[in-house]
């Protein structure tokens, strides 16, 4: 597989049968015939109003739609997108977001089992008002309950070998989940500077987040490092509250620690910080200049896309995710 970013909403100039899936940052265009996650948010610092990210396959892909999931698979890799409106769960005994989250993940696991690709590698979660409260509980915590319930109900477990992931808040829209999965289990990677997210104390909610700090995955002929959404957290506590530059430095220290830990487990040689392709989420678009200066100072001239979005903790101002790949 090959990852590609192109400016604007126009389709990439490649035979569409070879596009596994992707995302449209900053836009709502849906006129494509592959699974595409639309992330409607501003792109600070970008001259383009939209960026299209695509995963390209070396061979034609099989397409399908199951339980509201639009998906494609190529060989032993599957990429899918599901969107659920919370209003459709208003009469559920659970909160609408909790019910939508559990439903989405149950459907994802059913699809993966049916396709014989049961290993969930990487997940991108977006929801409206992630830090807002409703039904007596912060919405991100409602999401975590629904997600973990689905993992347990589908016998996936909620610790250890769980996927890399991120969860961000947008101004509005449905619960949107994109995911990549395969036949071979991912190698989970944790961060020695942090408590594993699935072991957080209950001060952060009745259910811990279900994700690994990173994952090494092995599609045919490749090794990909997926680094989850990473923020200014040491142990389990938020650091440098109110200081976006300090939070960015701490975030990058965590990313470098994850890269070092991944390199102990990688089978294709060391991943270098300069190889990383990054998404940086900013609570305040005006922080772009300060965050970019720190990121360039520490990582160098890496490729980074900035997105205005709310981080999962109200006291965090920036979150960065990254990926890199090597041939096998």
From TrEMBL:
Family annotation (InterPro entries): FkbO_Hyg5-like_N (IPR049368), RutC-like_sf (IPR035959)
Name of the molecule in the record: Chorismatase FkbO/Hyg5-like N-terminal domain-containing protein
Domain Chorismatase FkbO/Hyg5-like N-terminal: 53-181
A Pfam family matched in the record: FkbO_Hyg5-like_N
Organism phylogeny: Bacteria, Pseudomonadati, Pseudomonadota, Betaproteobacteria, Rhodocyclales
Gene3D superfamilies noted in UniProt: RutC-like
SUPFAM superfamilies registered for this protein in UniProt: YjgF-like
């Amino acid at each position: 597989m090959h990852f590609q970013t192109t400016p604007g909403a126009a389709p990439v100039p490649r035979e569409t049968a070879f596009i596994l899936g992707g995302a449209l940052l900053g836009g709502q265009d849906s006129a494509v015939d592959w699974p595409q996650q639309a992330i409607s948010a501003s792109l600070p610092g970008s001259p383009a109003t939209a960026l299209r990210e695509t995963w390209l396959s070396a061979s034609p892909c099989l397409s399908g739609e199951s339980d509201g999931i639009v998906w494609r698979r190529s060989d032993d890799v599957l990429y899918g997108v599901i969107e659920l409106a919370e209003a459709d769960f208003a009469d559920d005994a659970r909160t609408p977001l909790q019910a939508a989250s559990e439903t989405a993940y149950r459907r994802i696991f059913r699809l993966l089992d049916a396709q014989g690709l049961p290993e969930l590698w990487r997940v991108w979660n977006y929801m409206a008002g992630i830090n807002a409260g409703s039904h007596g509980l912060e919405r991100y915590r409602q999401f975590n309950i629904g997600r973990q319930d689905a993992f347990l109900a589908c016998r996936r477990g909620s610790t250890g070998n769980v996927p890399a992931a991120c969860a961000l808040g947008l101004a509005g829209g449905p619960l949107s989940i994109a995911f990549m999965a395969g036949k071979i289990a991912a190698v989970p990677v944790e961060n020695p500077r942090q408590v594993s997210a699935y072991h957080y104390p209950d001060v952060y909610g009745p259910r811990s987040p279900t994700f690994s700090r990173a994952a090494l995955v092995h599609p045919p002929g490749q090794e990909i490092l997926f680094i989850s959404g990473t923020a200014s957290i040491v142990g389990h506590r938020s650091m440098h509250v109110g200081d976006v530059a300090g939070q960015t430095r701490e975030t990058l220290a965590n990313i470098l620690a994850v890269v070092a830990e991944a390199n102990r487990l990688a089978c294709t040689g060391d991943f270098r910080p300069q190889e990383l392709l990054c998404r940086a989420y900013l609570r305040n678009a005006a922080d772009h200049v300060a965050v970019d200066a720190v990121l360039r100072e520490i990582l160098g001239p890496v490729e980074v896309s900035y997105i205005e979005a709310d981080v999962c903790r109200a006291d965090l101002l920036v979150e960065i995710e990254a990926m890199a790949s090597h041939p096998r």
